[in-house]
Amino acid sequence: MDTLLAALFTGTSRGAIYALVAMGLVLVWRGAGIVNFAQMGQAMFSTYIASSLIMNGYSYWLAFFVAIAAGALLGVFLDLAVMRPLSNKKQTELLSSASMRAAVPVIASLGILGVLQALAGVFWAAEERGFQAPFAQEGYTIAGRVMPFTSFDLFVMSVVTFTLILTVLFFKKTGVGLAMRASALDQEVAKLSGIRTNGVRALSWAISGAASSLAGLLLTPTSNLSPYTLDLALIIGFTAAVVGGLDSLPGSVIGGFILGFVISFVNYYLTPEDIYLAILAVLVFVLVVRPRGILGGKDTRRV
Amino acid sequence: MLEVRDLTTSYGSVVALNSVSLTVVESKITTVIGANGAGKSTLLRTISGLEKPASGSVTWNGESLLGKRPEEIVRMGIAHVPEGHAVISALTVEENISMGALFRRRTHKNDIAQATEELYTLFPRLLERRKQLAGTLSGGERQMLAISRALVSRPSLLLLDEPSLGLAPLVVEQIIDSINVLSQKTGLTVLLVEQNANTALSVADYGVLLSLGKVAAYLPADELKADASLRAAYLGY
Where are the domains of chain B? Predict the structure, then answer.
């Protein structure tokens, strides 16, 4: 019984974070047509910024919000400085096919990941360091028994729930949200409606950067912080995004929770070593049974 | 007034527009007719900034449009309804319409609400279906929606590309009539591209006959319609 509860709570809390990671990937995929493999590198970078602020005596909450803002800024910077020039037709006309041109920014994102990890090693040394949680990570004690969920888990779930509600309202209720959905669905019609699609694209990178930085801040207290700690989160988040359909935001959230539960149950009932196998199994299962993902549109499997 | 001078646009080595010159007179309907591949759509796409011309000029009330992005040209009051009922299927009818006026939502909030009302009066079918996804509409309704998306920002010039494509004659007539009424009532300037020459010429004030990227004739619409030799040579009837 305790194991079941523990698996459920960990699954929910982890799933919430993977949902954020997947959402970040889906935002950039929809907004810019790029699978951004650098995403958790960006998150790692902003978590290091938060860590440095805290070590220099600033409060956790200041560091928390500075890191999220830094994540957004880094996202915009990557779009303007790297991705936009690379997507320029003139620069890539030497490449023969459209699919090769589409691959250029994706490969560039892998390069960015490497650069960010190397830079983090230079700035902050490559050894692991702890990253604090804003709330206790010991289980609650009810009637003399230690329960398998912690204040930090509750914090994670409420922050992610709040973020997801905010995101839904933003996309459904605001003009900028409508502009973003329109640009993601049809660039030409969006432009002809007077929507500045370049600005919208930069905004996708900003929101994605902020969401993944939040994920980084929520993930690192339970592991440690090193330039490579968040690599696994990218793999899980990407799988979650593909499971959800890659072009669907609600799908990415569902995918995130599915992965959270699968990993948590494997961890508690089998062994932690089987987690990678389980992730692969989920991915293969979805690709075989429903290749376009749970909520994906028809032509998403171009990747 | 829209002035097009010596406009040449190519796709790779294929010249789609070859030194085209024409004037679109304010508050009038000008129609561009011609066979498939005559360069009609390319003309509209070059005006609205979707294609970059090789040479020539396009000026709108004295200001050059060349080098401007499509989204900036729309903001100057030139709305383009591209070929093929261009709506976003995964958005609702309401969202498709409000999308067209997003760029002036802070400055013209009340006017947008009124423009939307007027469009729903013009196309009552859209009002009935305003919560539906655009992808569930019929071809005619989609065309009405695409036109509404363009008109909701109250443009001064409407570039309308083949509204009749794939539609039943009755629906075509209804759409063309609505445009005609709107132009007469509000003074909207229209540049209408059509393959269906008769329908287009019957509502237009001026007609431009394009053939293989060149202007073969630029005449008042009734004269162009009456000219049997031009019709026989270029339109084949």
Answer: 2-235
